[in-house]
């Protein structure tokens, strides 16, 4: 247990921060001025292998000590307001819980009475530093976020900072937290990032594929009943000229019929890492009896959930740049700062989309209705389909109502993809489990645009145009230019 026997140090909380005990519209609560976090003896780990010259200096703090255990008397106590069935999982490990989807999900599950632990290497914050990017919204450190959540709700979320590619670290988190379900968001998730250069392509596939393999081995070794809820992407399927099914398709060939995994046609090294993950998970379900749900998620938009709206220190990140920003979020920020909406090529690219409030709902539904042992279950997690041109038209219309003059330009497509194509993807399984979708509405667009306007002074307009080309991907390490 070397990782758990470690040195500790204090972090002072800036007095300029609004105390979290004083949530929006609530009374003030006294806060400690410092708290203790633990670091591993082998405190710093290289992020990528020695051969990766560009990133030799990158380090990630690795620890298996649950930070928040220091500030709570009984981290395993806690109420379950929403679930009455005691056979359902109680303890949920959220890998990647400091990221966009993971943060919102960790808070949502904690609010619903699950015991939650966040596992995160904080590498996403490092990418921002390396590329000179920033979230539209100011985001607090993970430590302040969790202190704030505790102060407002009285609920503890445990925190394990480390890289899941480090199996020793992951083993210790499993043995320490003993999860009933693992929600795995913890991957490098940008297609453009994976297409910057060779080292980023290699990093993406190592980080994602080995991280997921380690999670599978940890479940097999330490928690064989644990349900894996893995975030995949609709991008794994590509854009076939037939309907996209949920994971499997029944085919009759030369008079014989079988139900087979739906064909995958990924279109970046990132999307390919997700396909490799899916194959590894499917194999271990068969071979070891792992129970798993692969959530092929569409493009997520929005920023607020019930929980992240409770206090400014709980605010989620919102990416608008050409590397990490996703279509609708990017368009809203572009409209807010008077930048023309950047449609890539012809703009007929059609994808599934969902509100971040539905991401958290879908994950909760998957956890509450676990896959059976040995089952590899696939859900297509989105609520509506839009083409890029349709999104641009919706944002233009909503912008007009707010007095914004929204223009659209077509920019050369940096990706290799069909710009006009058939697209019809099934997405009924989560609805059958009880998903109540938040469909894209005028009011949501209004609120997202207003949010973007509120923070528009933080926008670095140099980061808006796409700067990574699928065709010009380099062998040599590249710095993404601040155009
Ligand atoms: N955001 C979307 O629109 C979208 C769409 C489809 C699928 N997804 C999937 O959902 C998941 C979460 O996406 P997101 O937008 O929240 O991404 P994000 O980058 O905001 O969050 C990912 C988090 O995982 C952490 N992480 C990465 N590698 C890790 C490792 N090896 N060990 C520990 N932590 C690690 C990062 O530090 C980060 O906090 C990803 O797997 C992504 O592929 C996202």
Describe this structure in words.
The protein is of the alpha/beta class. Helices cover 31% and strands 18% of the residues. The protein has helices spanning 100-111, 123-131, 142-153, 167-177, 191-194, 198-222, 269-288, 327-337, 356-368, 388-401, 429-433, 442-454, and strands spanning 8-12, 34-38, 44-46, 59-61, 91-95, 115-120, 157-161, 181-184, 227-233, 248-253, 256-261, 291-297, 299-301, 341-344, 350-355, 376-381, 384-387, 408-411. The strands form six sheets. Strands 7-6-5-8-9-12-16 form a seven-stranded parallel sheet, with helices on both faces. It has a three-stranded mixed sheet with strand order 13-15-17. A two-stranded antiparallel sheet has the order 1-2. β10 (248-253) and β11 form a beta hairpin. The chain is globular, with a radius of gyration of 22 Å. The N and C termini lie far apart (48 Å). Bound molecules: nicotinamide-adenine-dinucleotide. Nicotinamide-adenine-dinucleotide (NAD) binds at residues 95-96, 98-102, 120-124, 163-165, 185-189, 207, 211, 231, 233, 297, 299-300, 326. Residues 92-380 form the NAD-dependent epimerase/dehydratase domain. Residues 78-88 have a biased composition (Basic and acidic residues).
């Amino acid at each position: 247990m070397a990782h758990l026997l470690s040195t500790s140090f204090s972090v002072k909380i800036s007095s300029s921060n609004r105390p979290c005990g004083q949530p929006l519209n609530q009374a003030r609560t006294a806060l400690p001025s410092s708290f203790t976090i633990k670091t591993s003896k082998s405190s710093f780990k290289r992020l990528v292998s020695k051969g990766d010259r560009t990133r030799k200096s990158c380090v990630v703090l690795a620890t298996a000590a649950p930070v928040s255990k220091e500030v709570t008397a009984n981290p395993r106590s806690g109420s379950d307001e929403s679930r009455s069935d005691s056979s359902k999982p109680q303890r949920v490990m959220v890998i990647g819980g400091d990221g966009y989807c993971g943060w919102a999900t960790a808070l949502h599950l904690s609010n619903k009475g699950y015991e939650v632990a966040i596992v995160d290497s904080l590498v996403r914050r490092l990418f921002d530093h390396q590329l000179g990017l920033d979230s539209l919204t100011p985001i607090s450190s993970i430590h302040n976020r969790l202190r704030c959540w505790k102060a407002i709700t009285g609920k503890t979320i445990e925190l394990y900072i480390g890289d899941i590619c480090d199996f020793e670290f992951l083993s210790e988190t499993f043995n320490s937290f003993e999860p009933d379900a693992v929600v795995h968001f913890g991957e490098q998730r940008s297609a453009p990032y994976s297409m910057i250069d060779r080292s980023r392509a290699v990093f993406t596939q190592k980080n994602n594929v080995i991280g997921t393999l380690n999670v599978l081995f940890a479940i097999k070794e330490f928690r064989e009943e644990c349900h894996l809820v893995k975030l995949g992407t609709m991008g794994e399927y590509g854009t076939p000229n037939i309907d996209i099914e949920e994971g499997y398709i029944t085919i009759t060939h030369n008079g014989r019929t079988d139900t087979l995994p739906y064909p995958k046609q990924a279109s970046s090294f990132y999307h390919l890492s997700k396909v490799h993950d899916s194959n590894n998970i499917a194999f271990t379900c068969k071979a070891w009896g792992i129970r798993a749900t692969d959530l092929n998620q569409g493009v997520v938009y929005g920023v607020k959930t019930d929980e992240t709206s409770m206090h400014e220190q709980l605010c989620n990140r919102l990416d608008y740049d050409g590397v990490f920003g996703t279509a609708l979020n990017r368009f809203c920020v572009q409209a807010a700062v008077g930048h023309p909406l950047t449609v890539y090529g012809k703009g007929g690219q059609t994808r599934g989309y969902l509100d971040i409030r539905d991401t958290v709902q879908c994950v909760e539904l998957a956890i509450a209705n676990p896959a059976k042992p040995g089952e590899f279950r696939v859900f297509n997690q989105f609520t509506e389909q839009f083409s890029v041109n349709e999104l641009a038209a919706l944002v233009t219309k909503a912008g007009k109502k707010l007095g914004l003059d929204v223009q659209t330009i077509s920019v050369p497509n940096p990706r290799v993809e069909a710009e006009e194509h058939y697209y019809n993807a099934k997405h009924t399984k989560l609805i059958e489990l009880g998903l109540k979708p938040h469909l894209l509405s005028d009011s949501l667009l209004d609120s997202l645009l207003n949010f973007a306007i509120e923070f528009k002074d933080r926008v670095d307009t140099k980061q808006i145009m796409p700067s990574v080309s699928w065709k010009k991907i380099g062998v040599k390490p590249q710095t993404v230019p601040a155009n």
